[in-house]
Amino acid sequence: MPASPRGLLRPGRLARWTGRVPDRHSAPGPRPPARDRLAPPSGSTDEPRPAERPTRAARGRTAHPWISPLAPATLLGSLVAVLALTFRRDDFHTAPGTLSRWYALAWVLFAAAAWTVRRLGARQAAVFVLAGSAAVAATGLLGPPRTSTDAYRYAWDGRVQAAGISPYDHAPEDPALAPLRDRWLFPTDSACHGPDRAPVRPAPEPPAPGAHPRTDPAPDHAPNAPSNTREAPDHTRGTSGPAESQCTRLNRPAVHTIYPPVAEGYFLLVHRSAPSGSTLLPLQTGGALLSVATTAVLLAAARRRPDPRLATARAALWAWCPAVPVEAVNNAHVDALGVLLTVAGLVAVPRRRALGGVLLGAAIAAKLLPAVTLPGALSGILATNPKTPKAPENAGSPASPSARLRRAAAAAVRPASAIVLPAAAVVALGYLPYVLLSRSSVLGYLTGYVAEEGYETGSTAADDKNRYALLRLLHPAPESWALPVVAAVLLVVVAWVLLRGDPGRPWRGALVVTGTAFLLMTPGYPWYALLVVALVALDGRWEWLGLPLAGVAQYVTARAVDEGAWVGTLGYAVAGAAVMAGWAVRALRAASAPPPPGPHAEAPGDAATPGSPPGSPATRPRRRRVPR
């Protein structure tokens, strides 16, 4: 009976075992029985080695293989159910305390699910993370935006651009845009009695045939009305039909848009691709697609990491985080687009600087906040101890630290330009069409927004909105000196990243700079922290996840208590303490860890002749000779 192909000894294996190269015309003989088979040489990987005794942790992972996927599946299903119930309720205005408890439950389930997925293999974890990302994101589609009205402004900007008008030229309440007012964005009469409605002047109606509208302005008071009784101005006097009150769901209808050009292009794209009669569901669907795409980029980057299993599990820190379905999907914040471009840019920077710079520039042109990640993209660019050997210097004249720093700065110009210049070019090219087509400033309400949020020196709004909350623990009124202190601290952190950062992991430096800026400025909107969540998923330093929780405490939970500013301060203080605790634990682990082996360390049991170079006959494993 002829031997099966599995029983044939491959010529390559025969040559490695015996040292003889078989003739290419000779057919290999049948494989000998197991009792007569020669043992492979030590160190060979062709045959399996005797199984070592598994550790207790390994036995726990392999004793019941169905337990490992069952735990994350159960926790993930519970998380999806809790999020679905959260979005079916509208508690932001009526019961913010109840909404905070639902958020807390979702975060607990998220933490447990993200911890259990670490027990899975890389391939199994990738399936769980991607499928869970789609399920978690889908929960945000179950209701209208619950905690923000920014998506209505996105829809309006897309509507205005589709009409061929620059969104930077007119405020939403401008009568010149009255023909573009859709009823779901500008409701009337009884629909104006809900929360988050801003009154606007009603759209003027065309005069009736034969009517002669008044040329004199309508008085603010009726002729016989008391002086303290003020009636609404009648903007439709002389037109057909009675006047009706009109409002808008847009926030800040009296100011121009603030969003950068890539975001405006995204709004136009969603408006063009949305079916007729749709409202905010296309924007929410776009947010879901962006969040799942970010998960896919994280999983693709994990395959090139030294530990793909752990890096794959870290992607769940973004994919399953409750902040993603709340802010990126349900509220449809354009920050999701900036996060996707930022993650893709930071992943591309170590291998292709120019591509990384282009993606980071697009992220900045979508949402200005990703600009704080640029120092991370330049991590280690000013390092004074490069790995390449230098020519020996003359004895007695060692280079000073300033000389080494100057050399490092000169050497850093080219790689820094490869990142910064493409980023700046993308931002400039993005703004160029709007500059040419707009009559007003393309910065829109940016400067007014900075002042409104209290980030100007001496601004009184900083106290009302609890900005610089942690600095207020040092001084009750930091408005006059907060900005110089924040700038100085950030400058020190950026310098540390440029000098000591890891160029192979630019997201680590980006996380440090971004997280420090959040702790110093304590923004009050939790959707800004989506960028922090994505950087945590890249780097794995989970202690920074306290920042989005602090944003929720300041934006949602503070509404449930009187004088709730202390809630946001407490949230950011706990987040800062968690960051310091995580840093201390990692430093202690690094100090107590054994030193890594040398680059040419010998395996245990291998004897080498002292002084023999690696790969020499003295250090090469010996083959066993088989007698003929």
TrEMBL record:
Q: Which ranges are annotated Polar residues under compositional bias?
A: 238-249
Q: Where is this region: Disordered?
A: 1-63, 191-249, 591-628
Keyword Transferase belongs to the record: yes
InterPro entries attached to this UniProt entry: GT87
Tell me, in one coarse class, where this protein mainly resides.
membrane
Entry membrane topology: Multi-pass membrane protein
Keywords tagged on the record:
Cell membrane, Membrane, Transferase, Transmembrane, Transmembrane helix
* Compositional bias annotation for Low complexity: 1-14, 600-610
What the entry lists under Pfam families is as follows: GT87
- Where are stretches of biased composition, namely Pro residues? 201-210
Which domain of life does this protein belong to? Answer: Bacteria
Q: List all Basic and acidic residues biased stretches.
A: 46-55
Where does it localize? Answer: Cell membrane
Q: What is this protein called?
A: DUF2029 domain-containing protein
